[in-house]
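Example S7 (structure tokens).
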């Protein structure tokens, strides 16, 4: 047994809206007791001062992509569809070191910004491998961060998935994108099964899940194959659904019903299922999710950056959808700052209508970014709250930072004032990962050199993929907005629509 006691801090209870003076007793990786200041602790307990600190539960990122971290800042005016077009340029030709490096950069950014666990939809070309997943798992383990790693897979390319797009391409480009064709779905499913069967990591630290990337990028047999794996291994299932209007229109064209209605028909919606984004869900879709105990990972930064729109989180909560919050990958957000995601989640709710009583509260946003996201990761009851029995994943904010001068309301300020600059220390599973604003677990200088070398090597290796993107941009960039101009009725502002 190793005991730690955190003394002299203000401990945040998000649900109650309070930050009371209390000491936190930790045994190994788990919180044992929240006691009065000066409460008894075993004589051998390591004491950590939390004086002038607000102690909040580590934020949980419900949706990100570790491969995106080497692609930050590479684009600007990208729709989701242009981002998908740019994928071979932004993420092509990755070797083992790139896979590990990209995940590690993201993990470090997240822990420095108060996030202690994430759901990583990880892409590996052409199929996910045990080795690739192992590189990502070791990147998180070395930093000391908790993670869910879900191979992101499909059996159809973007060009095979969007109605009319392949026909809109000139023949030479059609041949080029044909080379991006994916292996047969059975091979990909077998590879995921192999990785999950041989999972050797502590599931309390790094868990697997399955991520069929976008419903219409998958045949029905492939989606149900993914759902079968998730069921057989008792892990999460996570898919980008109703993210852009192009997706929503495509769903109707391909399925004759919404993507969510189709997924419900396939029987894959349940408590383990998470919709990423859900910007274009209608109220029936939300009920389909809520009635089955499913979740939405809300990524407001990405939704604005890619021009997808603003998700109606109030309507989701009214229909008992479990709400989590994420950053999305760095190639489309472009940072991994959960404080910013929290703040944007609050703000995008508030611009959607004049009925202020329907706006998301800071308490609801903060609960979503902790307990709600924890449920998406399959860590509910283990992380997302400071309480006995929960893992000791704690962030210590410096109350002498201007973000907190003065402290008027801890939850309002966590969501609306904090930007990561007041993060002083971060503990994950009882282990200090960040102390006095420095990461303790990995050497940042080495990482800097690796990142510079990877950038130069990948820029050269992907020069041809960049030229392909530049050739495709005018076609995809006019065809897809054409689809998005189709009328598509979504019930917004539920109280008025019903
Ligand atoms: Zn995503």
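Recovered sequence:
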């Amino acid at each position: 047994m190793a005991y730690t006691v955190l003394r002299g801090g203000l401990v945040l209870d998000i649900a109650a809206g309070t930050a009371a003076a209390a000491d936190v007793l930790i045994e190994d990786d788990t919180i044992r007791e929240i006691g009065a200041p000066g409460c008894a602790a075993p004589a051998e307990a390591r004491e950590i001062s939390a004086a002038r600190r607000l102690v909040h539960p580590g934020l949980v990122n419900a949706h990100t992509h570790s491969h995106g971290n080497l692609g930050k800042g590479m684009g600007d005016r990208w729709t989701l569809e242009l981002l998908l077009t740019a994928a071979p340029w932004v993420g092509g030709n990755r070797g083992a070191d790139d896979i590990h490096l990209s995940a590690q950069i993201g993990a470090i950014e997240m822990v420095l910004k108060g996030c202690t666990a994430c759901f990583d939809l990880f892409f590996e070309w052409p199929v996910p491998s045990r080795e690739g997943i192992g590189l990502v798992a070791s990147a998180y383990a070395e930093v000391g961060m908790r993670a869910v790693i879900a191979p992101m897979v499909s059996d159809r390319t973007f060009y095979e998935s969007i109605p009319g797009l392949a026909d809109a391409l000139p023949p030479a480009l059609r041949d080029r994108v044909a080379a991006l064709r994916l292996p047969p779905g059975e091979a990909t499913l077998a590879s995921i099964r192999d990785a999950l069967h041989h999972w050797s990591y502590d599931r309390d630290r790094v868990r697997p899940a399955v991520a069929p990337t976008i419903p219409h990028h998958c045949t029905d047999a492939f989606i149900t194959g993914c759902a079968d794996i998730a069921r057989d291994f008792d892990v999460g299932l996570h898919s980008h659904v109703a993210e852009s209007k192009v997706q929503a229109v495509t769903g109707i064209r391909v399925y004759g019903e919404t993507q969510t209605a189709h997924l419900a028909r396939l029987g894959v919606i349940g408590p383990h299922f998470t919709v990423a984004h859900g910007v274009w869900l209608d109220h029936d879709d939300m009920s389909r999710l809520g009635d089955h105990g499913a979740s939405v990972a809300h990524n407001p930064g990405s939704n604005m950056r890619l021009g997808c729109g603003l998700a109606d989180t109030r309507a989701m909560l009214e229909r008992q959808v479990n709400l989590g919050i994420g950053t999305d990958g760095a190639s489309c957000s472009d940072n991994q700052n959960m404080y910013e995601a929290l703040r944007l989640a609050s703000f995008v709710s508030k611009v959607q209508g004049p009925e202020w009583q329907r706006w998301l509260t800071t308490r609801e946003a903060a609960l979503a970014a902790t307990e709600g996201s924890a449920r998406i990761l399959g860590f509910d009851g283990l992380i997302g709250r400071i309480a006995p029995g929960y893992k000791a994943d704690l962030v210590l904010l410096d109350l002498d930072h201007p973000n907190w001068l003065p402290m008027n309301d801890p939850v309002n300020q966590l969501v609306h004032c904090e930007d990561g600059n007041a993060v002083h220390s971060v503990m994950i599973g009882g282990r200090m990962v960040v102390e006095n604003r420095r990461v303790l677990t990995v050497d940042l200088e080495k990482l800097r050199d690796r990142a510079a070398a990877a950038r130069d090597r990948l820029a050269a290796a992907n020069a041809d993929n960049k030229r392909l993107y530049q050739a495709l941009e005018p076609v995809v960039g006019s065809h897809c907005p054409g689809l998005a101009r189709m009328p598509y009725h979504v019930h917004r502002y539920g109280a008025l629509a019903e």
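Notes on this example. The chain has 19 helices and 17 strands.
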